Amino acid sequence: MTAPKTPSIQDVFLKHLRDNKLDVTMFLVNGIKLQGQISRFDNFTVMLVRGTGTQVVFKHAISAIHPAEPVQLIDPASFG
Questions:
Q1: How far is it, in rounded angstroms, from Cα 59 to Cα 19?
Q2: Where is the Sm domain (predicted)?
């Protein structure tokens, strides 16, 4: 019997950004700043869309993702 797999905080964060179509600023480790909306992601990449352009970014190249508005992933009421 195996325990159910819980999603990683990274997956929960990226899914929230994707599903809510939030604008993000993505900073890469080489200093480049990208802006757009996350349309897809997998274990290794994130697809960023802005206007008619699409960029695929390797996760290991990302240093930070800054959403345009605050993100709350946990229900504060659950911490009684």
A1: 19
A2: 11-71
